[in-house]
Design a protein that fits this description.
The chain is an alpha+beta fold. The chain contains three helices and four strands; from the N terminus they run ββααββα. A hairpin with a 2-residue loop joins strand 3 (67-72) and strand 4. The longest helix is centred in the N-terminal third of the chain and has 15 residues, at 22-36.
Amino acid sequence: AVVDRAGLVQALLRDRFAGAHTLQVATDKAWSSASFRISTAELAQATASGELAGLRQAQRVVAVGGGLPIESSGSLVGGIGVSGAPGSGADEKCARAGRDAIEDALGF
């Protein structure tokens, strides 16, 4: 899933063999990374315990790898989220590959 800086879906793709839940999870990972302006893996670490742990209870916040912010010329333009790979590390690797594939087209 790809969202714009406001978290609105711009593109959504699902493999026919992916679980039904992966659409929402990928969208929420993209939204979380755009909203917090960090990767969802970093969000997982920041909210693991302590004062920020309560953020995990907020709707749409997904604090597990697979979501990355998308920036262009130093400005946030959106987020990308992937769900359905075997593990959050693989989700993040796929998200990074997707973001890197369009990086040249993002320049203003």
